[in-house]
Task: inverse folding
């Protein structure tokens, strides 16, 4: 394998390890760090595709490797995080709920590979799996930060819990729906902003909580508001169309 192709695949591997670390931290009970690792994996998962396009190192091997990142970091990791935080106390219902997170994510990824020849460049059929993963991670992060009064925001009871888990269930269903979602811009500025927002999660508490709150609001708007807006096509330059459509298809 040429060095050029190893670079994006190495980033993909780092994203996979971040997902693994999230699972391990959830098992250990360090829920804030588990949430941070999910978001870090999300940034690395976006970075590998960008790098592969920048250095023209696309391959099918990279696409297959990326699928393992998606199901591990954005399917299994958030399910285990939710289970350890709350659902291990809810018996059969808890097991069913977290199983739906994983099963819906797997079905979403399988359908995406089969029916979307443009690899998401013209939008998505069904909610991307990363949205629910980020929603759960940021909700847990906020609840564990110690900055919010449990009387107003708790994942175990009250209106906050009802909002978080009902929205998560809706996201699970939307992942396997026929609802169309536009693809957020892949521009460098937007991606840099996303990296900055995730980096803020590792700073002092007030800054981290603000970043987490901003991301959870964005997740809600993207999921429940944007599909109702007038559809607009994702513009791809003709000369880059083939390359963009082959995102994360990296062969040596």
Result:
């Amino acid at each position: 394998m040429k060095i050029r192709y190893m670079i994006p695949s190495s980033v993909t591997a780092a994203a996979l390890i971040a997902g693994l670390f999230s699972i391990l931290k959830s098992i250990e009970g360090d829920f804030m760090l588990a949430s941070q690792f999910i978001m870090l994996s999300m940034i690395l998962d976006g970075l590998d595709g960008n790098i592969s396009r920048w250095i023209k190192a696309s391959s099918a091997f990279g696409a297959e490797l990326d699928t393992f990142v998606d199901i591990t970091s954005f399917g299994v990791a958030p399910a285990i995080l939710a289970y350890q935080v709350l659902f291990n106390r809810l018996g059969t219902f808890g097991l069913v709920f977290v199983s739906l997170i994983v099963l819906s994510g797997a079905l979403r990824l399988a359908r995406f590979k089969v029916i979307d020849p443009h690899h998401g460049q013209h939008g998505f059929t069904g909610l991307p799996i990363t949205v629910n993963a980020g929603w759960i991670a940021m909700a847990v992060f906020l609840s564990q930060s110690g900055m919010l009064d449990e009387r107003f925001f708790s994942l175990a009871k009250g209106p906050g819990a009802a909002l978080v888990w009902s929205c998560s269930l809706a996201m699970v269903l939307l992942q396997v729906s026929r609802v169309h979602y536009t693809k957020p811009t892949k521009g460098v500025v937007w991606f840099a902003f996303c990296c900055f927002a995730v980096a803020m999660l590792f700073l002092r508490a007030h800054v981290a909580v603000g970043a987490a709150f901003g991301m959870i609001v964005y997740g809600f708007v993207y999921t429940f508001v944007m599909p109702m807006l007038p559809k607009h096509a994702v513009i791809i330059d003709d000369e880059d169309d083939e390359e963009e459509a082959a995102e994360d298809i990296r062969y040596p």
